[in-house]
Design goal:
Rossmann fold; two-stranded antiparallel sheet; 15 strands; globular; 37% helix; alpha/beta; UDP-galactose 4-epimerase, domain 1; seven-stranded parallel β-sheet; 2 domains
């Protein structure tokens, strides 16, 4: 039986990944500060632990299966080799209101960088066979994303570096960190730059939710004939990837030999106004929009999928509308439960 360690397994993407790995026959250990928010974990074991703590990362990296003695790259001996696969999804993150407000920059950078420094070191010490790191499209240069109709997010456009947020800078640093460990310590790494992952069982309230979930919640909260507030003019563009496609991309990347960073995202670009309209139309409500100032991020962003098609022979093709409708009805159910 192959073994997998999912760091951040209590989060949105992590909890879905655990389910996929279990369906493929893996023994899965999940680690997070919290259990999944919307149901029981399917992991074989789930450890509540703070990955900013060196000792915690050391402990959770021990594989439950293998018992061999080896000399690690850091000169340490251990009686257990590491997991077949480690997925590093743990990070301090949220939607635009959390990432772009400027109020959380120090914590975002410190917490996420500390986790990644610990994970890189102990993955080598414990002889992890393969490691996945979830980066973000936020690491792309801001100056390439000022035109909402023609953003440039090709993987090769990452340098000269100029992310639009400290969150993006930390993601870029951590990419470089894991690539350095790959070169110097033979850590077998895969890196994906996620583009706005959404779907069922994701955070939909509380301030850290992403735009698709926030739109669905606001439509649920609004009465027929009501009004919804939206940050900015709504003409900024994005692409959004449904969670099932994200997990499929991650598994395909991990099963490949491609080791450079690659986009995992949809190339179906829409304005934020169009994103909201999908939900409004499905609700059947007559709702108007009030545009207000707020944190926005870049003016335009869309996944460039040329490289993933070339290297993996695959790219996401699930329609945004279908994913948004699924997500809307799931959030509608959650909202109605919260009102009872």
């Amino acid at each position: 039986m192959k073994s997998a360690l999912v760091l951040g397994a209590g989060g949105f993407i992590g909890s879905h990944l655990v389910k996929r790995l279990k369906s493929e026959g893996f023994y899965v250990r999940g680690v997070d500060l919290k259990h999944p928010e919307f149901g029981e974990t399917e992991a074989d074991e789930f450890i509540i632990g703070d990955l900013r703590q060196n000792a915690v990362v050391d402990e959770v990296m021990f594989s439950p299966f293998q018992n061999i003695t080896f000399e690690g790259s850091f000169g340490l001996k251990t009686d257990k080799a590491g997991f077949d696969e480690v997925y590093q999804l743990a990070a301090d993150m949220g939607g635009a209101g959390f990432v772009f407000s400027g109020d959380n920059d120090a914590e975002i950078m410190h917490n996420s960088a500390t986790i990644n420094l610990n994970v890189a070191e102990w993955a080598v010490r414990h002889n992890v066979q393969k490691l996945f790191y979830s980066s973000s499209a936020c690491m792309y240069p801001e100056h390439n994303q000022m035109d909402p109709d023609n953003p440039n997010c090709a993987e090769g456009s990452a340098y000269p570096a100029a992310p639009d947020s400290e969150y993006g800078w930390e993601k870029l640093f951590s990419e470089r960190l894991f690539m350095a460990f790959a070169r110097n310590h033979k850590l077998n790494v895969r890196i994906a730059r996620f583009h706005n992952i959404f779907g069922i069982e994701g955070t939909w309230t509380g301030g850290r939710e992403k735009a698709p979930a926030a739109m669905c919640r606001k439509v649920c909260e609004s009465a027929n004939g009501g009004e919804i507030e939206m940050w900015g003019d709504g003409k900024q563009t994005r692409s959004f990837l449904y969670i099932d496609e994200c997990i499929e991309g991650v598994r395909r990347l991990m099963n490949s030999d491609f080791t450079d960073p690659v986009n995992i995202g949809s190339d179906e670009m829409v304005t934020i106004n169009q994103l909201l309209q999908i939900v409004v139309d499905e609700s059947g409500k007559d709702i108007s929009v009030k545009h207000i100032p707020g944190p926005l991020g870049v003016r335009g962003r869309n996944s460039d999928n040329n490289l993933i098609k070339e290297k993996l022979g695959w790219a996401p093709d699930y329609k945004l509308k279908d994913g948004m409708i699924k997500t809307y009805y799931w959030i509608k159910e959650q909202y109605e439960k919260s009102q009872n």
